Amino acid sequence: MTDSPQTLRAVVAVDLSEELCQLVERLEPRLEVVRDHSFYRPMRGPADWSGDPSVTRTPEQQAAFDELVDSADVLFGLPDIDPASLARTVAANPRLRWVHATAAGGGGQVKAAGLDQDALERIVFTTSAGVHGGTLAEFALFGVLAGAKDLPRLQQQQAAKQWTDRWEMRQLDEMTVLIVGLGGIGKAAAAKFSALGATVLGTTRSGEAVEGVDRLVPIDELASAVSEADAIVVTLPGTDATTGLLSAEVLANVKPGVIVSNVGRGTVIDESALLEALDDGRVGFAALDVFEVEPLPAESPLWSHPNVLVSPHTAALSSAEEPRIAKLFAENARRLLDGEPLKNVVDIVEFY
Questions:
Q1: Structural fold of domain 8-130+319-337
Q2: Segments in the chain below pLDDT 50
Q3: Are 77 and 47 in contact (CB under 8 A)?
Q4: Where in this chain does the record put each D-isomer specific 2-hydroxyacid dehydrogenase NAD-binding domain (predicted)?
């Protein structure tokens, strides 16, 4: 970027605490961090950026909030995490040049706003990808270990107060783990699995080496690579290109008893095909934090399947998320002001 401004008017569009607003100001003094905490829907828990839906604004407050948002050079967060509100302010504010989404999958929110090509080229959109890497990698590891140590059997026997003969559990340092997606989450997962002695394979489009990954697998060779894996960890975002990537065709090739752990997006796995593979034993265990439809419908067989662990999209939640995102925003503001490339820029073709 060239001809960068000396200051930026950064409007906070979500409930970022005053402490963290001040942190952003200290980290990048050239930002004018504009906020009015009386406008925001308060968080109900850590990183609840959309806020309490029961809190509403009067028409006068909404008009004042819109006026504030429309005065921005840059936005911290989509207003109310609402794609329609983003579309409204983009149309109203020709000076807007950068929007930072608080979600790691913020590209999907930008896509949902239905912006025209001129707006997508005028404004840089960034996401908070990477801030959840450690927490999601831990859940992925937990899911694989739960399968390797036969958690369902242990729970069943404990509930029945049944002391059986001993059996051999799988050992992580004797397993091959295939990580599908080597972005921020995938890299963090690779480091953890590698540290515990697993052989790590990872899918790639770029072909760039990743620390902790023993062998890179071209994404178009996924269907053959799964036959080598004792566990498959999915970390990919939800895009048109990733929808149904773990298909019936891919799952037909898995090593019998494979463990599946999904911490990316639920749409990456064909759930019908996964259920068939669970029922016939090709998949021995699945730990799922994300689903095709959320909340997971009550009628979904996944709820009651004996070899499925259901987590309600909560594995990423951490009180450390908010300061991490604030620091990422400040760093990207510095980059913008200094004419450097920003981190986590949304691909405006595939929206990730």
A1: Rossmann fold (3.40.50)
A2: 1-2
A3: no
A4: 144-315
